[in-house]
Design a protein that fits this description.
The protein is an alpha+beta fold. Helices cover 19% and strands 24% of the residues.
């Protein structure tokens, strides 16, 4: 016969937690093909179970971000450009894509701090 405490306190293994697995996170192919057509896009290491972060590498961040936002809206996906601590260039926020949140950041295809050179006069 079980004691009163055993009846009230479920064992830890009896408690089921509904935590989404990483396999359920968004992937690049979850974005409509007409939205990512011709762009280099990959999943960023800052992605987690709540928000998936994608990075688009492009020569013209302004034009490509505006074009992608337009394509997302044409595909009936709510999208908003707003500031973020993730990037100095405002990314696109998608509050719901297949039930998950997504952020699309835009990075230069080349250049930036990695390729900066100093011209020193001698």
């Amino acid at each position: 016969m079980k004691s009163f405490n055993e009846l009230l306190d479920p064992k830890l293994e009896d408690i089921r937690l509904d935590i989404p697995s990483l396999d359920e996170a968004l992937e690049v192919n979850d974005l409509p093909s007409e939205v990512i057509d011709g762009l280099t896009i990959e999943k960023h290491k800052k992605s987690n179970t709540k928000t998936t972060v994608f990075v688009v590498k492009t020569q013209d961040r302004d034009a490509d971000r505006d074009e992608m936002e337009k394509k997302l809206r044409n595909a009936d996906i709510t999208a908003e450009v707003k500031g973020s601590s993730l990037s100095s260039f405002d990314p696109i926020f998608i509050p719901s894509l297949n039930g998950d949140r997504a952020i699309i950041m835009f990075k230069p295809k080349s250049g930036g701090m990695n390729e900066t050179t100093l011209n020193i006069l001698t």
